[in-house]
Amino acid sequence: MTHKTTLRYSLLFTIGLLALLAIFLLNISLGSVQITLPEILQCFTEPELVNRSHYSIILNIRLPRTLAALAGGAALATSGILLQVFFGNPIVEPYILGISSGSTLVLALIILGGYTFGMKTMTSMGLFVGAFLGAMLVMVIVIFASQKVKSITTLLIIGMMVGYVCSAGTSVLTVIADREKIAAFSIWTMGSFAGFTWSHVKILYLVTIPFLFLAFLMSKPLNAMLLGEKYAQSMGISIRPFRFLMVLVSSVLTAVVTAFAGSISFVGLAVPHIVRCLFKTSDNRIVIPASCIYGAVMAGLCDMGARLLMSPTELPLGAMTSLIGAPIVVYLLVKQKRGEM
User: Fold this and answer.
1) CA-based diameter of the chain, in Å?
2) Each residue of 73-99: pLDDT tens digit?
């Protein structure tokens, strides 16, 4: 690695971390109630001096939501990298294997169908557990298929078919459900980090941090996979167990975000592209940590936009991620192609 390349990486990582800090503070500061930066800092250093209502807004609403958005963005971006390497296709995203469809079907059974699976009342934590189990069920099917079929294309088709079956079940429940229930269900499907509590954030971080670290430890084998399975095998990598691990890590990262926040498209597709274009490398030892940072920045920025652009109405988070991410990716790809000419 040349000195110029090292300097470039250091600069881009520094910019990403500064942007992350700025997004973190802005998400806590901005809203229907404006909170100043000194108040935010005082909330952590001298909480007894902070306005009680502001303290409650920061600690109970904005801080959990912001932390959830940052972790969710990092998880989806990393999941996107793993699947893009797995399928050898740069336009694959985390929801391609039907993971979100499994979560959606279980939540449709609970919200639209009224199934509580023996529980008297279904709490928000119960909804999360149901959605997570639905995602894990699809993941188990896909992982089992990955052990049985050699063709990556066949596995992709199996994942899509499982997703279609889950979507069909959801559609049937939507038709027969009450309008009020449909409205509540539609809000979840649009994706949002609203309503996160500290117990939700704790679970999100307990799941995402170990799996993000595991994804980083997989960087070297992932680099070998970029050159083809035969090359990776010649480097001593056991292909089937490693394919299993790639699908497992990607699915868990996607499932935990989907279960809490709904389907949030485009982060897992756009961020890896953005990082590769900015850093001008496909080395996953650089791409994975950079995608965690820039994925968190993108999710935090989109969540802030969803809250503020048409306040007090909140926009669908999925729409914001597409509106912000798509133009950036197109611009970077066009710029990159011009540089090659």
Assistant:
1) 65
2) 999 999 999 988 888 877 777 777 777
